[in-house]
Automatic annotation (TrEMBL):
GO terms for molecular function: serine-type endopeptidase activity. Residues 420-500 form the PDZ domain. It holds the Pfam family PDZ_2. Residues 22-39, 84-109 have a biased composition (Low complexity). InterPro entries: Chloro_Bact_Ser_Proteases (IPR051201), PDZ (IPR001478), PDZ_sf (IPR036034), Peptidase_S1_PA (IPR009003), Peptidase_S1C (IPR001940). Residues 1-144, 172-197, 436-460 are annotated as: Disordered. This is PDZ domain-containing protein. Keywords: Hydrolase, Membrane, Protease, Transmembrane, Transmembrane helix. The keyword Transport does not apply. The chain crosses the membrane at residues 149-172. SUPFAM superfamilies: PDZ domain-like, Trypsin-like serine proteases. Residues 11-21 have a biased composition (Pro residues). The keyword Transmembrane applies. The lineage of its organism: Bacteria, Bacillati, Actinomycetota, Actinomycetes, Kitasatosporales.
Length: 516
């Protein structure tokens, strides 16, 4: 949506009354022109002139066109459409003194009628008739070496320019008085440029050597590009599952550092549900520097973020933004033929993230990893793992590093992920007002696993779960994403409704090993 304020013509301000011509008797004797006066009698710069009375505050200003451009991009729900507007000038100026697009009025007769005998603006002061008080030409003052206006401009420049301006003025003044010419050469060197540790440039220069561009190729020859970062000195690289999924069974993986060094790699383990994978460099170098991991639980909305990746194959790209939201429930696919989704309680950022950023680090202002860039919401509803090349609209999502770290360590240890579970099937629709336990599980199995955590807590099919601890639950994917931020064995409190009554139950989370 845009708002335009079209330019509206304003009538021109009335001209000031002409300066009266003194009678010959009152005129001063003719004098020789002052130094610096022009040959046609026009006063030189700085020479005193007859002051023009100030225009009354009520006099309208000269016409001026103004444009106000307010752009609002609306984002509401899938299928919603934003609009944008561009302010445009409405019409072109016409003849001088005429309204925009209009015609100039006919010229008045010339010469104009003589002014009143005693001109002055009627703003009080003085006696007389016509315009008001009488007017007298002030006596001319001797002009100095510099005009008053020029001196005022120089003073303003010196105040703005500080020490540098003062030196420049001193040199110029001495040059004028001596008649000599002074040439000052500007330095061709900006000196040593030192960046503070907290600047984006400093963080990027430290983090980039520990990021890699990953190329994954399936056994059928299909491939894609993603990003990863050094997790430890043994050569483990953390990335997204959907980056390497195609190369898991007989495919080929390579990881390229910003220096151009490329290494073959292999998949150590991958978790489709978490969308996390770990690969290991073959013949890894001994000078690897793992990135420092931050604490994603302590991240606050508004904190600065830095994303590193290879958007559209452009390796070592750095973008910046902020944390826009926390605990954003996100479900995304791996971009393949699998119907299984990944669930996360994500960090949302407006740092530009595009296809190819997947698996790259999301850093805080100190350079600590706080998340793994994983998905985006785009205007065509594409994700980072999708086959389309949808671009960033400022809605990027990252897996919190606290969760990703636990998953990565489990994959390095056993090669398989472990998921915390409540032992109940829930609906996956996003408009249920909560996570409803289904009447029947997958393949006709029990919706509530007999002897499982939910069964022991007294939950039944049809119960609508609306809260996990203090986190509101509005859908099944939200519940799954929140559960997966915990560890097996953790105790959580579930709030649910049954037959219109709200109840709570304490549940000790169970576990499931591997993707099913």
């Amino acid at each position: 949506m845009s708002t335009e304020n079209e330019g509206t013509a304003v009538p021109p301000a009335p001209s000031a009354p002409p300066v009266p011509v003194e009678s010959p008797a009152a005129s001063a004797p003719a004098q020789a022109p002052e130094p610096g006066a022009s040959s046609d009698g026009t006063a030189a710069q700085g020479a005193p002139t007859a002051p023009i009375p100030a225009v009354p505050a009520s006099a309208p200003e000269a016409a001026e066109q103004q444009l106000v451009h307010t752009g609002a991009s609306a984002y509401a729900s899938p299928g919603g459409q934003g609009a944008d507007g561009h302010a445009q000038a409405q019409g072109a100026p016409g003849a001088p003194g005429a309204p925009y697009g209009g015609t100039a009025p006919a010229q008045a007769d010339w010469p104009p009628p003589p002014p009143p005998a005693t001109p002055s603006y009627a703003d009080g002061g003085g006696s007389g008739t016509g315009w008001g008080s009488s007017y007298q030409q002030p006596a001319p003052k001797p002009s100095g070496k510099r005009g008053g206006l020029l001196a005022a401009i120089l003073v303003a420049a010196l105040v703005a320019g500080g020490v540098g301006g003062g030196i420049g003025y001193t040199l110029a003044d001495r040059s004028e008085s001596s008649g000599d010419s002074t040439t000052i050469s500007a330095s061709q060197s900006g000196g040593d440029l030192k960046r503070d540790p907290g600047t984006v440039a400093a963080v990027a220069s430290k983090a980039l050597p520990s990021t890699v561009t990953i190329e994954a190729e399936s056994s059928s020859g299909e491939g894609g590009t993603g990003t990863g970062f050094v997790f430890d000195k043994q050569g483990h690289i953390v990335t997204n599952n959907h980056v390497v999924a195609g190369a898991v069974d007989g495919g080929k993986l390579t990881a390229t550092f910003p220096t151009g060094k490329k290494y073959d790699a292999e998949v150590v383990g991958h978790a489709q549900g978490y969308d996390v994978a770990v690969i290991k460099l073959k013949n890894a170098p001994s000078d690897l520097n793992p990135l420092t991991l931050g604490d994603s639980d302590k991240v606050a909305v508004g904190d600065s973020t830095i994303a590193i990746g290879a958007p559209f194959g452009l390796s070592n790209t750095v973008t910046t933004g902020i944390i826009s939201a926390k605990n954003r429930p996100v479900a995304s696919s791996d971009g393949g033929n699998s119907t299984k989704a990944s669930y996360m309680s994500a960090l949302q950022t407006d740092a530009s993230i595009n296809p190819g950023n997947s698996g790259g680090p999301l850093l805080d202002a100190q350079g600590n990893v706080i998340g793994i860039n994983s998905a985006i919401q785009s205007s065509s509803n594409g994700g980072l793992g999708g086959t389309g090349q949808s671009g960033s609209i400022g809605l990027g999502f990252a897996i919190p590093i606290n969760q990703a770290k636990n998953v990565a360590q489990q994959l390095i240890k056993t090669g398989k992920p472990v998921y915390p579970v409540i032992g109940a099937s829930v609906t996956l629709t996003e408009s249920a007002g909560g996570a409803k336990i289904t009447e029947e599980g997958e393949g006709g199995s029990d919706a509530v696993t007999p002897g499982g955590p939910a069964d022991k807590a007294g939950l039944k099919p049809g119960d609508l779960i609306t809260k996990l601890d203090d986190t509101p639950i509005d859908s099944g994917p939200t519940l799954i994403g929140e559960i997966w931020t915990h560890q097996p064995g953790d105790k959580v409190t579930l709030t649910y409704t049954r037959d219109g009554k709200t109840q709570t139950a304490e549940v000790t989370l169970g576990q499931r090993e591997g993707d099913s």
